[in-house]
Design brief:
Largest sheet: 8 strands, antiparallel, barrel
Distance between the termini: 76 Å
Number of strands: 15
CATH architecture of the largest domain: Beta Barrel
CATH topology of the largest domain: Porin
Strand content: 25-35%
Oligomer: single chain
Shape: elongated
Radius of gyration: 48 Å
Structural class: alpha+beta
Order of helices and strands: HEEHHHEEHHHHHHHEEEEEEEEEHEE
Number of domains: 3
Length: 504
């Protein structure tokens, strides 16, 4: 406890910015009316009165020790704390301001330079009477202010149900501790009248009672706060609970109250985070299915009510972006197509008419030449306009599918490959490319494709979902000189969209 008093008194001298008062006398004779300590110094220091600030700080510490040893209340304070234990009224004193910290400016010590024999000294002194009277006056002034503030706080709780924050209650607690400890020092002072002592002791007792009444009201108010929080939790009013907890975190509670509050907070977080996980699962499912319908928007709206909690705002913004992009228009597509076309019919270049001498009117559809197509297309600007460029690999079968008895095909235009580059706009795509077959080295393949049916249009997600498409086509195989052939038919292809955008 002696260390405690030392600590308390130390703040007196070190919270004041240091003492500048100093004087010089020839003989070292310090009156008993002063608390004093001394230190031997050099002659040069004595003459110049130039003791360093570090040595003065050391002297102040020694003076604090000397005062503590002469204050008889030390033993009484020590006994009281031992009896009350860790939960005693003085237990938190070590973490609070010194009982004399506020009167440090009154009790600034003086520094006196003097000589005794052949040695030189510097003394640090403070008047005993001034110290005790100033302590009494300060305690008396703070007592009146304290009682007024406590009365006002009690009135505020009764009328408004207010709960004070930690800073406010900490100040009340510190002042109460200051007054309780100050009167222990004042009670043994020889410079304060007995009537003044008795009066301030009685007034502090009343102040303590009022302060304990304030604490009781706060406990009652706390119970009401917990009841309110539980009602909010039943109604899933998570946001209100969140801000209520923030407000309560700034308030001072007893250990048991703090424990109750932590238990409630744990239940609140458990329930709220369970709801968040449920929403996460539903939104992830909507994203995987590329949904951005009214139900998905309801999920996002529900999720927006969680943005006050931890990292929920970032997750909410990410979900919005992912939903918009994943359900957005595809800028690129990979297509796999199956072609069913007529056999290639020769065009009579001399007349510009189709040569049908060896065929009946519909013979070109009696034999179907299958082919498959693997292509990549990328749309520029607004993907809804379907303006884009494509690269296409087309492979023709070496076998015809006979739909009826025929005399056979009059040409051998099959079993070849073609690499084409295309330009598309809307439902129309034009392609042109080379032919990979030795005896066709002079021929080029031009194609016209017209989209007829798309499943993404049927489900109202045009350009936003993978689709099955049916198209009509016409192929023109020619050297653009003497030899030309044509084929017509239908295409069944599957488009896989990627490189999605949320811009449009």
């Amino acid at each position: 406890m002696r260390l405690l008093v030392l600590t308390l008194i130390s703040i007196l001298f070190f919270s004041c910015g240091g003492v500048k008062n100093s004087s010089k006398i020839q003989e070292c004779r310090i009156n008993s009316k002063y608390y004093s300590v001394s230190k031997v110094i050099k002659k040069s220091t004595y003459k110049s009165e130039s003791v360093t600030s570090e040595k003065k700080s050391s002297l102040k510490k020694d003076l604090i020790k000397q005062i503590s040893e002469r204050v008889s209340v030390v033993s009484r304070l020590n006994e009281q704390v031992k009896e009350e234990g860790d939960t005693g009224s003085y237990s938190s004193f070590l973490n609070n301001e010194s009982i004399v910290s506020s009167i440090g400016s009154v009790n600034n010590p003086n520094f006196i330079y003097c000589k005794s024999g052949r040695k030189y000294y510097i003394y640090c002194v403070v008047p005993v009477k001034d110290f005790e009277i100033d302590l009494y006056n300060e305690a008396k002034a703070r007592l009146q202010i304290f009682r007024n503030k406590v009365d006002l706080a009690i009135s505020s709780i009764n009328s408004k149900g207010r709960v004070f924050n930690n800073d406010e209650m900490s100040k009340f607690s510190e002042t109460n501790l200051y007054l309780s400890n100050a009167i222990e020092l004042i009670a043994v002072s020889s410079h304060i009248s007995e009537s003044d002592k008795n009066k301030i002791i009685n007034d502090v007792a009343l102040a303590n009672a009022e302060y304990f009444n304030l604490e009781s009201l706060l406990n009652y108010n706390f119970d009401n706060q917990i009841s309110k929080l539980n009602k909010l939790l039943l109604n899933n009013a998570f946001e209100k609970i969140h801000f209520e907890l923030i407000s309560l975190s700034k308030k001072q509670f007893s250990p048991s109250q703090r424990e109750r509050l932590m238990i409630f907070k744990s239940e609140y977080e458990k329930k709220f985070e369970s709801l968040i996980r449920e929403l996460d699962s539903k939104i992830e499912n909507a994203i995987s299915k590329r949904r951005n319908d009214a139900e998905t928007q309801k999920l996002l709206t529900a999720y927006s009510y969680t943005v006050f909690y931890k990292d929920q705002k970032e997750k909410y913004e990410l979900y919005k972006h992912r939903i918009t992009k994943r359900s957005g228009y595809g800028r690129s597509a990979l297509r796999l197509g199956l072609y069913a076309g007529s056999s290639f019919n020769e065009i009579n270049n001399s007349s510009g008419q189709i040569n049908i001498d060896q065929f009946d009117d519909n013979s070109n559809f009696e034999s179907i030449l299958p082919s498959y197509d693997l292509s990549f297309i990328h749309y520029f600007l607004n993907p809804r306009k379907r303006f884009g460029l494509s690269i296409n690999y087309r492979s023709f079968s070496d076998t015809f599918i006979e739909l009826s008895d025929t005399d056979g095909i009059g040409n051998n235009i099959n079993d070849f490959n073609s690499l084409q580059f295309g330009l598309s706009y809307g439902p129309i795509e034009i392609k042109y490319g080379t032919v990979d077959r030795d005896d066709f080295e002079d021929l080029k393949l031009s194609s016209l494709k017209l989209s007829v049916f798309r499943t993404d249009k049927m489900i109202g997600r045009f350009g936003k979902s993978n689709s099955i498409n049916i198209s009509a086509f016409a192929d023109y195989l020619s050297d653009f000189k003497d030899t030309s052939f044509y084929s017509v038919g239908v295409i069944l292809d599957y488009s896989i969209l990627f490189n999605r955008t949320s811009k449009y």
